[in-house]
Each structure stands twice: as structure tokens, then as C-alpha cells.
Design goal:
Radius of gyration of chain B: 24 Å
Structural class of chain A: alpha/beta
Number of domains of chain A: 2
Shape of chain B: globular
Oligomer: heterodimer
Helix content of chain A: 40-55%
Number of domains of chain B: 2
CATH topology of the largest domain in chain B: TIM Barrel
Number of strands of chain A: 8
Order of helices and strands of chain B: HEEEHEHEHEHHEHEHHHEHHHHEHHH
Strand order of the largest sheet of chain B: 3-4-5-6-7-8
Number of helices of chain A: 7
Helix content of chain B: 25-40%
Shape of chain A: elongated
Distance between the termini of chain A: 64 Å
């Protein structure tokens, strides 16, 4: 039986547009089941026989319509979980999201993301959990440094595209600060001007080496390293446990693991 | 950060930021003080930032997240959530187990309120910490010391306008008025029980008395209850210790049994409305004939078992009487308390995953709070099999002896204590430590409970309370 693959852009709006187009596609072509339609966020390595490939352009109005439907029919919580899946870094995430939505809408189940015995739902759950875990980790492990002009600067290296979810957390706790979070992996900047709305900036020339840090920055970094050293109890030193709790990959950007 | 200061009730000094010197010509730099006063505070275990949700107000720095946030993990694997320091390690008391006791010759230091505020603000701003944990040695007397702590918190909240998390130690014997005042500035307050029993306390902490410890605990408990009623009436009433109170006791310095310790903990949860009880494996720092030798290994495994049991009390609906009793006074070193319980109660198993209620599921080894919740949610939309359970996150190699799916067990296994025990022991329990006390040589010494209690290690990180 013939299968159809819709290839959409790798972004939340891209995937949501893909979901919209998949429903349209099913209707227009009178395909009897969603099972024969798949979403992908990149071209396949190998093109299969008996499969039609279509490329979908991102359309923000269509994406918004799908968002509205999800929130209305499946609830905020489901939308948040699906969002985390959509920003995760896994290749087949779009298909998992699409089929989870299909199942949720067809069964009118607001708790669709709890139905872990379903394969698509389980995959969406796993991917979303991975992204959400990284988001939580970066809330903990992100470190700001103070620049000469008083601005705070942090660099992260996130596997998943979680910067837009990280920004509100810091905007809420540091409303008066000008701060910027640079996601090295995605080459994106999250900017928060003092007492203003934050935004994301893409494609800016940036040379970290030219940053000038404030006079007291070094002193506070040194103080924090001193604190972290002094707080450990010698009789309980346990690097393996420390590694489990704080994986090595986060450490290059963390003040306490840098040499002063 | 120039904030206008409105309060007029306090003295001028308290309403003004004073410049602190990051590099002083003094003999003690901030760095020296921080090293001394962090080192002096490190044995305190209660370092969580959980229990209160407070959004930012759009002006001042800080918010609080109910689940708590750990910002780092020190070399011992414990979480760093708060700037955990003492105001001063000068101390008028002479508690035998304490590194800061009067009779010890250690470097002493005292922070000024501004130093603490600046450190807190600057660490918080850089996302190093979630807030401040402030305790202190006794300078002159308890009330005088708490007065200094009050000044610090007042400044931090009203002058530096800090909205993040604050945890403060209540010193027994402080003027109740002062405890009341501090309660409105802090998120969590804790009074240390120090040792599980009054006899232990008398022996090791001659300046402290059980009664003076319980008095402020009761006061804080009443304050919290009253505060909640006021909040229900007046939306803007200031909240009193909104994240609740906790306490901690030292394990292994005195000869109490696990049964005694857990009964005390249960009493604290039931009668004092504690949010958390922390157990701190005794680390020998002082030579004293009343204490175990300083070379005794810290009882980390015992501490680990106590935390596991504490979890069973708080989240798994267990009672101490179910886990331990007069005859069975200590936890099994080889098995976690839940497995141990299940093996003693095989008549209640196996349970059917698709029908058993939530509380029954919680009692199955290998099923935690999260997987029990997921099972309850998932089975609403269809029956579950073993493959589904695996996806849900159930540890099947432990659970398989205790469950059925649609009436079938996973394998054809005997439900027989020795057989299951052997199999569970073959699956090595993942302990969060591997250095201390877990070699077979030491396990063979296990005959003398008292002596060996000190041989085993264990350690559990409290990320969230």
C-alpha cells in the first residue's frame, strides 16, 4: 500500500503546519487512515519505493490554527508536553507528535499524553522528557558573568532547542537586568533588556573573545569556587555521584569547574 | 541597583547599604571569611530550596519555584542549592560533636550583614544559588545571635529587595518575639533536633535541652497554621515561614536504634507538621571520650536506609510500625526497606497491575511514585502488559516477583521469601556511593550491630523536598 511522507521545517511552526497539511492531504486524497501518512523534519537518507514525498512550507496561520485546536481539545498541559517534543533533537519527533495529536483528537482524550502504551505517544513522551530534562538542567547549571556595562552574559550548549523556554524563567527572576543567553549549539541569542519583553536573535556576528568583564566579576567567580570547595565534606567525597548528578557535558560553561 | 527604601521603622543603619570591601587590607578577606564560614556550615544537611512558589514581581530580583532548584553538586555529590554559611563560627556552647565548639582551636570569623547580602545578591544574579541558608554559632547568647540574623534578613529583604529563597536556623532559647519577626522574612525555618533522644542530647550537648528545642518548633508550627488562616482572610497578609519547617538529627554519634530514630521522625511529621526531617551521618571531627573515634567511617549506608524509610513515610503511605518494631529494631543492610517489607508480607502479593489501587501499587518494589501515577493514568485507556510497564519506567527485574498483568506473572516464579531474596540480592542494588563500607570483608563483621552501624556508608541527595 502506498505511503506518504510530508517533509516540514524543523521548528514548532514547521511541524504544526505539517500536521495541518497532513489532515488536508488525507481529506483531499481521500486516504482512509492517518497511518499511511508520516511527517518528517528532514529529507530521508534513503528514499523508499511506493512512497510519495512532499515538501511543506511553513505557514504561521496554519500553525496557529493547529495550536488553537490542540489547546482547546487537548488542554494546555498536552500542548506544553507536545511543544517539548517538537523542540527536542530527535529525527522522528514530528511523526510522533502528529500521530499523538491524531489519536488525541479522535478519542477526545485530554490526557492523551498519559497513554504510554501507545507507541507514538510513548515516543513523543520520551523525546519531550529529554528536552524538558535539559531545560531543567540548564535552569540549574547556567552561569551568568557580569560584563563591564553591567549586562549579564551566559553561554549554553543545548542539544534541544529549549532557549525560548529558558528565557521566561530568567526574565521572571531578573526583571531589572539586561541579560543575554547565547546558545552556542543553535547559534542563537536570547536577549532580555531591563524591564522589557525578551526576544530571540539569530544570525549575529559574535566574538566571545572580545567580551569585557566587570571589575568585580573575577572576584565573585573566585568566591564561588572557594564556596564550592569548602562546602564538600572530605569524608564523603564521591566523584561518581557528582558525575551522575552533574554530567560532564555541562561543566565547560560552569564557573565552578573553570580554572580561576 | 538603587532602590528607594521606604521603611521608617528601623534604625538608619539597617536601611542603608554599606559598601563592602572585596579586597580588604584587614587580615581577613571576604574570601577567608567565606572559606571559614562555609566550612563551618557544611555539616548541616538541610539544603533544599523547595516548598514555596513565588513569582517575580517585575521589579525586584528573585522568585521561588516550589520544586526547588539545585545549582551545582559538590565533590561529595551533595547538591548546592543555597549559599550555606554561618553568620559566625564564634560559639559560646561546647557541644561535643561540633567542630565549632568553644573548646576547639579553629580559625574564627564573623560576617557583617552587608557582606552576607552582597554575596547573596551577586551569587544569585549569576545563577550560582537559589538563595541563602543562614545559621550561626552562638555569639554571647541565642537572642543576641538571632538579632544579628534578623538584621541581615531585614536588610536583604527590604534594602537589597531580595525575593529569592531564604532558609534560617532557629536557635533554641531565642526570644519568641524575635522568632516571630524572622518568620515573616524567611521561607523556611528549622530548629535542629541535633540528636534523636533527650539522653543523647544531654550527653553530647550540655548547653542544649530537649525542651528548649521543642518550644520554638511548636511556636513555628503554630505560626504557620495561624499565618495560613490570616492569608485566607486577608490576601496580602505577610506569610509566615511559607515553605514550612524542617529539622535534622545526627545519626551514629549516640546508640539509638533505627526504630527509635524513625519513631522520632514520624512524631515530628505527625505532631509538629514538619516538611522534612534530615538525617546526618555522623562525621567524627573531635576527639572525645563520649564520641565514636574520629577514625570511624561515617555511617553512610545507614543514613541512606533512613532516608529511604523517610521517603516511605512521606510518599508511600507507610507507618514506622510496619517497617520496624521492638523485635526488629534496625533496617536490613542488604535490602532497601520497601523490598524488606514486601518480603515479610508476601501474602499480599502478587498484585494485579490493571486493578490494584494507587496505594497498593506504591508498595510494590520496583514501582515508584512516578510509575504508579503513570500506571493509573495509562490504564484508563486500555489494559497494560509487561512491555507497557517497561516503557512506563517500572523496574521489572525487581517488580516481577510481586505483580501480575491480566492475571499472569512475567515468568513462572515462586513466591517464596528465600528464593526472591536470593534473586533480588543478585541484582545489585544501585547505591549512590561506592567508596565506604561496602566491601564484603566489612559485611562479614556484621554481627555486632552497634559497632557495625558505623562501618557502612550511604548517602542520599535531597534535591527536592
Amino acid at each position: 500500500m502506498e505511503e506518504y511522507v510530508l517533509i516540514c521545517e524543523d521548528s514548532m511552526d514547521g511541524i504544526l503546519t505539517g500536521v495541518y497539511e497532513a489532515y488536508q492531504f488525507k481529506k483531499n486524497r481521500s486516504i482512509e487512515s492517518h497511518d499511511r501518512i508520516h511527517l518528517a523534519t528532514s529529507e530521508p537518507d534513503v528514499y523508499r519505493f511506493f512512497t510519495e514525498y512532499h515538501r511543506i512550507g511553513t505557514d504561521h496561520t496554519k500553525a496557529e490554527k493547529v495550536t488553537d485546536t490542540i489547546i482547546r481539545q487537548l488542554g494546555d498541559e498536552s500542548y506544553y508536553r507536545l511543544s517539548m517534543t517538537m523542540v527536542s533533537c530527535f529525527e522522528d519527533k514530528a511523526d510522533a507528535v502528529y500521530h499523538t495529536i491524531v489519536l488525541g483528537l479522535s478519542t477526545h482524550d485530554r490526557n492523551i499524553t498519559d497513554r504510554l502504551q501507545d507507541d507514538y505517544v510513548h515516543r513523543a513522551f520520551r523525546y519531550g522528557r529529554a528536552a524538558n530534562n535539559e531545560l531543567n538542567r540548564l535552569r540549574e547549571f547556567l552561569r551568568f558573568s557580569e560584563l563591564q556595562n553591567g549586562m549579564l552574559y551566559a553561554k549554553i550548549d543545548a542539544k534541544h532547542y529549549i532557549l525560548p523556554f529558558l528565557m521566561p524563567h530568567f526574565a521572571d527572576r531578573l526583571p531589572a537586568e539586561n541579560f543575554v543567553i547565547y546558545d552556542e549549539h543553535a547559534d542563537l541569542f536570547g536577549l532580555h533588556p531591563s524591564f522589557k519583553q525578551w526576544y530571540i536573535l539569530q544570525g549575529v556576528e559574535f566574538d566571545e573573545g572580545r567580551l569585557q568583564f566587570s571589575e568585580t566579576e573575577e572576584a565573585y567567580q573566585e568566591l564561588f569556587r572557594c564556596f564550592c570547595d569548602s562546602i564538600a565534606i572530605e569524608a564523603r567525597i564521591n566523584p561518581k555521584l557528582q558525575m551522575n548528578m552533574l554530567p560532564l557535558r555541562f561543566r565547560p560553561n560552569m564557573t565552578e569547574f573553570k580554572q580561576g | 541597583m538603587n532602590h528607594i527604601v521606604e521603611s521608617t521603622t528601623c534604625s538608619k543603619v539597617m536601611n542603608k547599604k554599606e559598601n563592602i570591601e572585596l579586597h580588604t587590607a584587614n587580615t581577613q578577606t571576604i574570601m577567608d571569611k567565606l572559606a571559614i564560614l562555609t566550612d563551618a556550615a557544611k555539616y548541616d544537611v538541610a539544603c533544599t530550596s523547595s516548598g514555596v512558589d513565588r513569582k517575580g514581581n517585575g521589579k525586584d530580583m528573585g522568585n521561588c519555584i516550589a520544586a526547588g532548584i539545585c545549582h551545582s553538586f559538590s565533590a561529595d555529590g551533595r547538591c548546592i542549592s543555597l549559599l550555606k554559611i554561618l553568620m559566625s563560627n564564634e560559639c559560646a556552647y561546647d557541644c561535643k560533636y561540633c567542630v565549632n565548639r568553644r573548646s576547639n582551636d579553629v580559625p574564627r570569623a564573623t560576617f557583617t550583614p552587608d557582606e552576607i547580602c552582597e554575596l547573596t545578591m551577586n551569587f544569585y544574579k549569576r545563577n550560582y544559588i537559589e538563595g541563602l541558608f543562614l545559621s550561626s554559632g552562638i555569639i554571647n547568647n541565642p537572642t543576641y545571635t538571632m538579632e544579628l540574623i534578623y538584621q541581615t534578613l531585614y536588610k536583604l529583604r527590604n534594602v537589597y529587595r531580595f525575593r529569592g529563597y531564604v532558609h534560617v536556623k532557629g536557635i533554641p532559647g531565642t526570644d519568641p518575639m524575635l522568632i516571630q519577626q524572622i518568620g515573616y522574612l524567611t521561607d523556611r525555618m528549622s530548629v535542629n533536633l541535633e540528636l534523636p533522644t533527650a539522653e543523647g542530647l544531654e550527653k553530647l550537648a550540655p548547653n542544649k535541652h530537649r525542651k528548649t528545642i521543642l518550644t520554638p518548633m511548636r511556636q513555628i508550627q503554630n505560626g504557620i497554621v495561624q499565618g495560613k488562616q490570616e492569608l485566607a482572610l486577608y490576601k496580602n497578609a505577610p506569610s509566615f515561614v511559607p515553605a514550612g519547617q524542617s529539622t535534622q538529627m545526627i545519626i551514629g554519634a549516640t546508640p539509638e536504634s533505627d526504630y527509635q530514630i524513625m519513631s522520632v521522625a514520624e512524631g515530628l511529621y505527625d505532631k509538629f507538621g514538619m516538611k522534612r526531617v534530615f538525617y546526618s551521618a555522623y562525621v567524627g571531627v573531635n576527639e572525645d571520650k563520649a564520641l565514636p573515634s574520629v577514625h570511624t567511617a561515617s555511617p553512610l549506608l545507614r543514613e541512606h536506609r533512613l532516608y529511604q524509610a523517610d521517603w516511605l513515610l512521606r510518599f508511600y503511605h507507610f507507618r514506622v510500625e510496619e517497617l520496624l518494631n521492638e523485635k526488629h529494631q534496625n533496617f536490613n543492610i542488604l535490602l532497601d526497606p520497601k523490598c524488606d517489607w514486601a518480603l515479610q508480607h508476601l501474602e499480599q502479593f502478587p498484585v494485579e497491575i490493571n486493578r490494584a489501587d494507587y496505594q497498593t501499587l506504591l508498595r510494590v518494589p520496583g514501582i515508584g511514585v512516578k510509575s504508579a501515577q503513570r500506571i493509573c493514568k495509562a490504564r484508563r485507556s486500555g489494559t497494560l502488559n509487561f512491555d507497557h510497564l517497561k516503557k512506563i519506567g517500572v523496574v521489572l527485574k525487581r517488580a516481577l516477583y510481586f505483580i501480575t498483568c491480566n492475571g499472569k506473572m512475567m515468568y513462572n516464579t515462586k513466591i517464596e521469601e528465600n528464593y526472591i531474596t536470593r534473586n533480588l540480592l543478585a541484582e545489585h542494588e544501585k547505591l549512590p556511593f561506592d567508596r565506604d563500607g561496602m566491601t564484603y570483608r566489612q559485611l562479614s563483621l556484621f554481627d555486632d550491630a552497634q559497632e557495625n552501624v558505623d562501618l557502612f556508608g550511604g548517602n542520599k541527595i535531597m534535591m527536592t523536598g
